[in-house]
Amino acid sequence: EKGGYDHFMLKEIFEQPQTIFDSLRGRLDAKQGTLTLGGIRGEYEDMLKNAKRIIMVACGTSWHAGLIAEYVIEELCRIPVEVEYASEFRYRNPVIGEGDVIIAISQSGETADTLVAIEAAKKKGAIILGVCNVVGSSIARLSHAGAYTHAGPEIGVASTKAFTAQLAVLNMIALKIAKDRGTITDQRYQYLLNELDAISDKVATALKLSDSIAAIAAKYKDARDFLYLGRGYNFPVALEGALKLKEISYIHAEGYPAAEMKHGPIALVDEHLPVVFVATKDSYYEKIVSNIQEIKARKGKVIAVVTEGDETIRGLADDVIVVPEADELVAPILSVIPMQLLAYHVGVQKGYDVDKPRNLAKSVTVE
Length: 367
Ligand code: M6R
Hints:
- It is built from 14 helices and twelve strands.
- It is of the alpha/beta class.
- Strand 11 (about 300-305), helix 13 and strand 12 form a beta-alpha-beta unit.
- GO terms for molecular function: glutamine-fructose-6-phosphate transaminase (isomerizing) activity.
């Protein structure tokens, strides 16, 4: 059942090259330069193209996927995007108007907070697009249109393959809107189709790091707290890394935008604090190098996820995890892999049941 793996979580982490491929299959054709999303057609295609605002509604890991999509959609489509915790959105009488499109992101499609939030928004006349993994789930059925993530059943309580599939689908949605609106050049469109098409092979390469990440986990598994930092597209990846560690290893972890660190969290830094930097080569790179120096100056331990060929951070960090190069818009699909593996190995080494962490349920069906 676990396909030879010790845990569903590990199996699902390792399935990602295939599940990402599956979520792109039949939709993205890099050779032809085309993108088709069968579940978003006709009037809904037009509504999305002409959206005045897009609101992402989700919880947990799915909310992190929404945060990344916010950056991607704003960059490519020039449509303002808001990302809402479903529970907060629901109960604060949100302003929803004509031209607003809601994207509900949910692996299970049964998360109560997300479900009631979109029910309420639908009553107010909002258009709902569902990005769900479970076919025929409540959120999928309630949505006007949408795109399934096709990651296959996710058994581990910690979401892994559903997250990367969500990112793949949200990237396709962003590229489609950008193309329809004419906010992207043909050249960049084709380039990003190629980058997305190439990402599952790079994920396969990153998975080979599992043993070396297990060794890093062994070094830091007794830490009381972890800090996770990233900027730009990798900021939500830092949040996701911290969430994974909390869930699976019961170590307190916080994710922050790297620059925000100096507005408070830096007070926590001493020689006992491991700080995980998601620092792949992107337009924020120089800035994050300075943030790493700030942590080292305070004797924090730095574990950095970097791009192949990076020598600068290698010279600064205590441990580096090297992943292939990828465009910054698709990079989170890759940079989250070491986050998942680190949490997994720490949890296993601490002797916990990583598939069923305490106090957690696979789908949270209470508000
Ligand atoms: O099924 P959903 O995507 O709606 O679930 C949302 C969250 O409950 C979920 O992502 C949760 O945070 C996971 N345990 C994260 O690993």
